[in-house]
Amino acid sequence: MKEVNVGIIGGGLMGREAASAFSRWCVFNDMPVKPVLKAVCDLDENVLEWYKKVATVTQFTTVASELLKNKEIEVVYVAVPHHLHEELYKQVLASGKDLIAEKPFGIDLKSCRNIIDKVKESKRFVRCSSEFPFLPGPQKVIEYVRSNKVGKLLEVKSGFHHSSDVNTKKPINWKRMVAYCGEVGVMGDLGMHAVHLPFRLGYYPISVYADLQNIIKKRPGADGTMKACDTWDNAILHTRIEKEDHTVPMTIEMKRIAPTETNTWYIEILGTKGGVKYSTKEPKTLWTFAIEGVTQRWQKEDLGFKSVLDTITGGIFEPGFPDCFQQMLGAYFAERAGSLGERFHCATPEEALLSHQLFDAALRSEKENKVVNL
Ligand SMILES: NC(=O)c1ccc[n+]([C@@H]2O[C@H](COP(=O)([O-])OP(=O)(O)OC[C@H]3O[C@@H](n4cnc5c(N)ncnc54)[C@H](O)[C@@H]3O)[C@@H](O)[C@H]2O)c1
Predict the structure, then answer these.
(1) What whole-number distance in Å separates Cα of residue 82 and Cα of residue 51?
(2) CATH number for the domain running over 132-373
(3) Which residue among 14, 82, 90, 161 is best mutated to probe the pocket of ligand 1, counting the most ligand atoms within 8 A of its Cβ?
(4) Longest CA pairwise span in the chain (Å)
């Protein structure tokens, strides 16, 4: 297996997930390449400390340009707050390295467009992180829809819900401040996850009416004093898509304050002949709708481990978050090596742009309290 040297810029929550996924690459069968984590950059020395347990890392730095000067590194995964996406993604591309970018791929629409200009100019291989479609359930949803079992499309619902912000005493962090997370707030944080699969199925909104809520307006800071928590907490986008000879409502929900939901990603697609539902709340269950004679029924099926890329893990076992994140990274490296073929690929910069166009229209819809056409 050919080795590809990798660097990480931003070693926090997601940087560690990526490091862990690279370290467990032996799970894959028939993988053409193996990423080897060689360099890590984080502003915070304490964050770098954790990476000392990853034996392959030889460069630890607090300055991104130092990592980018490292000629050994071919691919860089960048997982930093959103206000730094444009600057750091462009630096990575200018250094001649390929990029695994985190969502939302720029703090806003303008920033996303600027990054895409640089991607085109540099001709580097770039994909955007969005891992949930790599679970077996969403893969089955795609298979179901593409096999024309749905009939005439009736409606689509897709969403991603968190609940920890129900706790009003939860300290503030960069994800809850417009300056670092972006004016799009929760849409920048959770939105790419909610739109990735609908977009891939060809469900592109032609209009949006947005219900955006900022429910908790202050949260305690590190010093205990209350700070402004000025981002949108919850967003419900009532969109419309065009299909065949009719229009179809598609609801995209992104919520940080969804009581009881720890990390619930879901999709529901209903048609006149069939339907399919999947939620990480029941991670191994696929619901499908069928009509037999006069009987209409939902039926559920237990799914196993099979995802996009073949692994050594037993087919009846259950996957989780680290597995779909690793599958996504596997797809990135397989596609980069030219061996992914027709299998599901990571979100593209163009898909990230579509998501920003939708979120930007949602902001205008909220401000003007009207339906915005896309
Ligand atoms: N794909 C997913 O499921 C998922 C989940 C959570 C977050 N994210 C995305 O990942 C990115 C990072 O989020 P996170 O949760 O890991 O955040 P985090 O706060 O846990 O980590 C960010 C890290 O970046 C470091 N950093 C800040 N400025 C830097 C700079 N100039 N150079 C180097 N390091 C710098 C910080 O010190 C911190 O350690 C965001 O884009 C976020 O939207 C994706």
Answers:
(1) 23
(2) 3.30.360.10
(3) 14
(4) 68
Domains 2-128 and 132-373 share a fold: no
Residue ID of nearest Cα to ligand 1 atom 18: 12
Show the low-confidence residues of the chain (pLDDT under 70).
Answer: none
How many whole angstroms from 55 Cα to the centroid of ligand 1? Answer: 22
Atom of ligand 1 nearest to the CA of 85: 41
- List pLDDT tens digits, range 290-313: 898 999 999 999 999 999 999 999
Nearest to 94 by CA among 115, 110, 63: 115
HEC sequence for 37-91: EEEEECCCHHHHHHHHHCCCCCEEECCHHHHHHCCCCCEEEECCCHHHHHHHHHH
Please compute, for residue 269, the number of CA atoms within 13 A of its CA located in the half-sphere on the CB side: 26
Within 6 A (CB) of ligand 1 lie 9-14, 41-44, 47, 64, 79-82, 84, 102-103, 129, 131, 189
Q: Which of 194, 134, 59, 138 is nearest to 329 (CA)?
A: 134
Domain 2-128 has CATH 3.40.50.2300: no
Helices then strands, counting H and E runs in the chain, come out as 10, 17
Tell me, what's the pLDDT at 244?
Answer: 78
Q: How far apart are CA 76 and CA 349, in angstroms?
A: 16
Structure confidence at residue 250 (pLDDT): 98
79 alpha carbon – ligand 1 mean position (Å)? 4
- In the chain, where are the structural domains located? 2-128, 132-373
